[in-house]
Amino acid sequence: MKIVQNHPLRDLHTFGIDIKAKYFVEIRSKNELQELLKTPTFQNNPRIILGGGSNCLFTKDYEGLVIRISIQGQEVLDETDEHVVIDVNAGENWHEFVMDCIEKDYGGIENLVYIPGTVGASPIQNIGAYGVELKDNFLELEAISIDNQQFRRFSKEECELGYRESIFKNELKGKYIINKVRFKLTKNNHKLNFSYEALENELKKIKSLNEDESLTSQKITLKDIAKSIIKIRKAKLPDPAEVGNAGSFFKNPSIDKSLLDKLKEKYPDIPTYPSGHPEKTKLSAGWLIDRAGWKGWTSEDEQYGVHKKHALILVNYGGADGSDILDLANQIVASVDEKFGIRLEKEVNIY
Ligand code: FAD
Ligand code: NAP
Question: Which entry of 164, 182, 228, 254 is annotated as an active-site residue?
Answer without folding.
Answer: 164
